[in-house]
Design goal:
Length: about 50
Amino acid sequence: MFRSSRNVFVLDNLNDKLFRITSNVYMSSEQWFFLKLLEDFYLTLYYYTI
């Protein structure tokens, strides 16, 4: 899979934010599920814009 460095940087940034949110906040399973959906949504967007 070929990726431009700019997109990888943005994606890494997003993952860092998500990780910080999930590690700092105690979450119910519903919130966790929503975050995973959000992450999947961004990953899908990312793959379609390559």
